[in-house]
Structure formats: C-alpha cells, structure tokens
C-alpha cells in the first residue's frame, strides 16, 4: 500500500496521535491495514476493532511484536497503552474511523467505481467482470466476499494509483447497510443482480429486501450509470429519469440494450448461450443462473467498449470461484460444491443443475444440505416448503445438517420418503454418506455459510 502513510491519518476527524514518529517515519510507506494481530505484517497499521467474540484492543501488543508500524485504538483504551513507545492513533470509535478513512481514501482516485449488490450471484458476477476487464486494464476489486461494514472499507483502502477500474461488492443483512456502504464507496455505477429471499430475519419480507437493495440506485449520483436486470420482476419496473441506464435480459426482452439467448446446458451442466444474437459462448461454470451472471458482467463490459469477441474469449477461460457451483470429481463420484451460501431462491437453480447433469450421465442424485440461516420467523416454513419441493426431483438420497433441516426432513419421512438422514456433525454425516454412495453418483453440497458444509469434503 505505497499510496498511504501515517500522515494520512491526520485527516481522520476527532483523532490525535501519541508517540508521534519522526518526519521520515511519518511519511514512510505502509504495507496496508490489519485487523488480525496473528496475520499482521511488518509496517502495517493494526486497527483494533471490537467484535462479538474478541476485542482487538486486547491484542495490540501482539501486533506490535509482529512488526506493526502503528496502532489505531479507541480513546477508552489509551490509559494502559500510552507510553509504550509505538505510535498510537487515537479515535472515538475505531470502526467508524475505519469507514471514514476508507471514504477519504476512495475520494483520492478519480476512476470508475462499480458497486454490485443482490441476493444471489454478486460475487460470481464481480469475478466474471473482473476477468473480462483485466484483459485490457488494471482492475481493483473486492477480495473474496469482503462486502460488509468492515470488508468494504478494507477493500477501498487497497485502491492505489495503478488501478483504472474498481468493482466493489456490497452485502447487507440489516436495513440501512447498503446506504452506509454506498456513502463510503461513492460508486459511479451500480448493478443489482437480483432480489430474493435472503436474510429475512432482519428484513421480514422480500419487499424489505427490495427496499434495501434499491438504496444502491438511490444513492448513486445523477451522472451515475445503472445496470438493470429486466428479468427480475422487482427490478424490471424500476423507474428513473436517469439517462445512463443499461438494461439487459436473458428472456428475449426486445427493449433491453444487451440480450442473451440461452441454448442449453452441456453434459457437465455448463451453459451455452448467445450474446446479442452474435456470438455463442460456452461457460465453464455450471448452472443457468451463471449464464445470467455472465450476461450481467457482459453488459458492463459492453458499456465500457469491450467487443462481444473480447467478452467471449475471456468468459470461456473463466473458472468457478471456490464453493460456488464448483464441479469436483472424486474418483467415480461427482460433487457440485455450492457450499458457500444458501437461501430459498439459490437452492432451485442448484437443484436444477443437479438434475440436468444426473440425467446426462444416468446418475443417482443425492443432496447434502445444511440449514438456511437468517430466515427469522419464516425459517421453519421456508425449509419445509423447500423439502416438499424436493419430492419433484426424484432424489435418491437426502442428507441434512442443522435443526431446521432435521424438522423438515421428518415431515418428508411422514410422506414416505425413506432415504433421508439427519446429523449434527459433519464427520458422522460424511461417514454415513460414504457408505451410501455408489459409482457414478452425483452429489449436491449446499448450505448457509455458517453451516460450513465444505467440511464434509475433507471427510470424503
């Protein structure tokens, strides 16, 4: 992070420095920000944040031993840390200060910044777009899914003068978070992949989700560009007086600026589709929903002057992000590792992909599923609706983890479904699964992030 030095911290509102270093040290290039003392590197700034389980202020001395150049702390912790001989940047609230620092840093760079949000597909869309754009420019983007009130500031603090375009992923599980993150990011363009039934515990309804996601468009400046998914019913009718709007559709919407035509999924479940009625693209990531993600990424690229041929060449080299529709061959068994996250709307395309591949290879179909978290009072109902929907897929086995799935599984047993098993540990589930599977089986592995369903892979 050669674009940042300790002198930049003087810009933080209501802050001051204890043990101020020499002028040379003050302007010395830093190697970045760390919020974990265990991974702090020499010449990084350790930012002490208080979390639900740990308080970073308890690990300040550990960070200094690791080589931290300075530490950001709350005023309430000055007492026992002053006089230790290392620079202390003292703020009222270290989390708020991190967000303020990121906002100040973002404004140093006059480059296009695209913010992406949505219930499903935002990380894959971001990665696809970055893959396309990096063929002609230096792209800054969110690492992994650091998309919350801490991750977005950390992402923005990695911006530097070599970057020509930035893609920042914004996540939200509470009302008001998209507005907050938009104010920090100050995007010049915005894309909402879709609006679905995610985090209903905090939004109470899909209408609440829609209001939260649409805050991204509302926070955009008048000159900003909107990328609008005409296939999502809660986005298609979005009304705006903006002139800079790029519409896209995979459902033959003739009024959309960019269109895609779905052809089919191949034997591996990978999508074949036509972009703008000109070029056929074969993806190497499974699922119809990833064709939709690819169309969204293509729309942004076209608006930036990329040709259909350039987009085709890039997308046909793109490989799936870990734990997102990742096809794994384990001997004679095929596993669809879609374990990164789950909600009622993301399960259906994953199940449809499982069905397609199984039919192509005449395989038995097995689903290993973990609870869908953060669904609030509707959790039991939504889990049971999903499980009853499973009856339409003629599955050969269902293995579940979590209380909500176990309750829904019992409902299926009363309907006569026999090969359904519920567990409380990854290891015991994997042991039973190993004894159940046969040659040529295909397994879908899916669940909310908190369920960590990928652990089952290690036992297999």
Describe this structure in words.
This protein starts with 15 loop residues before the first strand and ends with a helix. The longest helix is centred in the last third of the chain and has 18 residues, at 344-361. The mean pLDDT is 93. The protein has helices at 23-26, 60-65, 94-106, 122-133, 151-156, 177-185, 200-203, 206-219, 233-236, 288-303, 308-315, 344-361, 379-390, 403-414, 426-436, 455-459, and strands at residues 16-18, 33-34, 45-47, 70-74, 88-91, 113-117, 139-141, 165-169, 189-192, 225-229, 245-249, 258-265, 270-275, 279-286, 326-330, 333-338, 365-370, 397-401, 420-423, 442-446. Strands 7-8-6-9-10-11-12-13-14 form a nine-stranded mixed sheet, with helices on both faces. The chain is an alpha/beta fold. It folds into three domains: 6-93, MurE/MurF, N-terminal domain (Udp-n-acetylmuramoylalanyl-d-glutamate--2,6- Diaminopimelate Ligase, Chain: A, domain 1, 3-Layer(aba) Sandwich); 109-315, 3-Layer(aba) Sandwich (UDP-N-acetylmuramoyl-L-alanine:D-glutamate ligase), CATH 3.40.1190; 326-459, Mur ligase, C-terminal domain (Protein-Tyrosine Phosphatase, Chain A, Alpha-Beta Complex), CATH 3.90.190.
Relevant terms:
globular; 3 domains; alpha/beta; six-stranded mixed β-sheet; 460 residues; 20 strands; Protein-Tyrosine Phosphatase, Chain A; 16 helices
Structural class determined from secondary elements: alpha/beta
Describe the main β-sheet briefly. 9 strands, mixed
Strand fraction: 15-25%
CATH topology term of the largest domain: UDP-N-acetylmuramoyl-L-alanine:D-glutamate ligase
Shape: globular
The CATH superfamily of the largest domain is known as: Mur-like, catalytic domain
Structurally, how many domains make up the residues? 3
Main sheet: which strands, in order across?
7-8-6-9-10-11-12-13-14
Whole-number average pLDDT? 93
């Amino acid at each position: 992070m050669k674009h940042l030095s300790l002198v930049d911290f003087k810009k933080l509102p209501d802050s001051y420095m204890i043990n101020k270093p020499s002028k040379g040290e003050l302007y010395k290039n830093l190697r970045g920000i760390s919020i974990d003392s265990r991974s702090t590197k020499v010449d990084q700034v350790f930012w002490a944040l208080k979390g639900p389980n740990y308080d970073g202020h308890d690990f300040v001395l550990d960070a200094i031993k690791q080589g931290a150049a300075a530490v950001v702390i709350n005023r309430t912790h000055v007492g026992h840390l002053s006089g230790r001989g290392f620079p202390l940047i003292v703020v009222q609230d270290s989390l708020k200060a991190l967000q303020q620092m990121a906002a100040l840093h973002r404004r140093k760079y006059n480059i296009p910044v695209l913010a992406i949000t949505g219930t499903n597909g935002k990380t894959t869309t971001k990665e696809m777009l970055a893959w396309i754009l990096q063929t002609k420019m230096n792209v800054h983007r969110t690492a992994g899914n650091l998309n919350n009130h801490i991750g977005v500031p950390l992402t923005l603090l990695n911006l530097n003068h070599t970057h020509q375009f930035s893609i920042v992923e914004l996540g939200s599980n509470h009302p008001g978070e998209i507005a907050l993150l938009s104010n920090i990011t100050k995007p010049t363009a915005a894309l909402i992949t879709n609006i679905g039934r995610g985090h209903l515990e905090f939004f109470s309804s899909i209408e609440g989700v829609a209001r939260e996601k649409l805050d991204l468009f509302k926070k955009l400046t008048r000159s900003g560009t909107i990328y609008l998914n005409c296939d999502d019913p809660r986005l298609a009718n979005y009304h705006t007086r903006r002139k800079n709007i790029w519409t896209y559709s995979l459902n033959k919407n003739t009024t959309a600026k960019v269109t895609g035509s779905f052809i089919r999924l191949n034997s591996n479940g990978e999508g074949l589709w036509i972009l703008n009625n000109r070029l056929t693209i074969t993806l190497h990531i499974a699922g119809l929903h990833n064709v939709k993600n690819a169309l969204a990424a293509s729309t942004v690229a076209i608006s930036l002057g990329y040709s259909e041929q350039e987009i085709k060449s890039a997308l046909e080299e793109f490989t799936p992000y870990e734990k997102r529709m990742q096809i794994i061959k384990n001997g004679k068994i095929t596993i669809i590792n879609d374990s990164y996250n789950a909600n009622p709307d993301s399960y259906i395309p994953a199940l449809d992909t499982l069905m397609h591949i199984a039919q192509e290879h005449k395989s038995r179909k097995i689903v290993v599923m973990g609870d869908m978290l953060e669904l609030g009072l509707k959790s039991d109902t939504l889990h049971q609706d999903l499980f009853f929907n499973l009856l339409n897929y003629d599955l050969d086995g269902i293995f579940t983890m979590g209380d909500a799935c176990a309750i829904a599984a019992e409902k299926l047993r009363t309907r006569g479904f026999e090969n359904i098993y519920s567990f409380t540990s990854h290891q015991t589930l994997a042991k039973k699964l190993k004894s159940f599977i046969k040659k040529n089986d295909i397994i879908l592995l899916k669940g909310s992030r908190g369920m960590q369903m990928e652990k089952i892979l290690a036992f297999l």
